[in-house]
Amino acid sequence: MVKHVSTYGAKAVDKARAKTPGKTEGMPGPTHNPATNLMVADVAIRAGSYIARRAVEKGLLRGRYGKETAREIVRNKTLGQTLVSFGLAKLATRNLPGALIVGGGALAKTLYDRRRSRSAQRREGDRELIEQAHRDD
């Protein structure tokens, strides 16, 4: 899936290069160096993605735990939690087998949780998140 998208993108870039000369006048970006412009764009996109992700995480938690506790839960995520999330997302977006593995694991976890009682699930999730919120750095 991703390979198809990258192939499509590469073809579009080749077409654009064929239609435009190698002049740098009017090139979008803060500098005339395309590598610098690409790096600046990448940083801006990643920063925006990071901010949006944190906002969504806080929004999901805010309704149940309140604004301050939600902020503390998100702030006190461990490096391990962050790396696992990043690794799973990277695996899922690289290729179809990775997406199937991650999706299958999420489905298995969902089915496992659904077999347990709702109150036990809530207690366990609440306990873990409240401990995370009150963890000292």
Task: Outline the low-pLDDT stretches.
Answer: none
User: How far from one another are the termini?
Assistant: 41 Å
Number of domains: 2
**How many runs of DSSP E, i.e. beta strands?**
0
Average per-residue pLDDT, rounded, comes to: 84
Shape: elongated
**What is the CA-atom radius of gyration, in angstroms?**
21 Å
Q: How would you spell out the order of helices and strands?
A: HHHHHH
Structural class: mainly alpha
Main sheet makeup: none
Strand content: under 5%
Question: Portion of residues in helices?
Answer: over 70%
Task: Tell me what the structure shows.
Residues 1-35, 117-137 are annotated as: Disordered. Residues 121-137 have a biased composition (Basic and acidic residues). The chain is mainly alpha-helical. It has two domains: 34-75; 78-137, no CATH class. The protein is built from six helices and no strands. The chain has helices at residues 2-19, 34-65, 67-75, 79-94, 96-115, 118-133. Helix 2 packs across helix 3 and helix 3 (67-75) crosses helix 6 (118-133). The two termini are 41 Å apart. The mean pLDDT is 84.
Structure, briefly:
Residues 121-137 have a biased composition (Basic and acidic residues). This protein has 137 residues and is mostly helical.
List keywords for this structure.
137 residues, 6 helices, mainly alpha
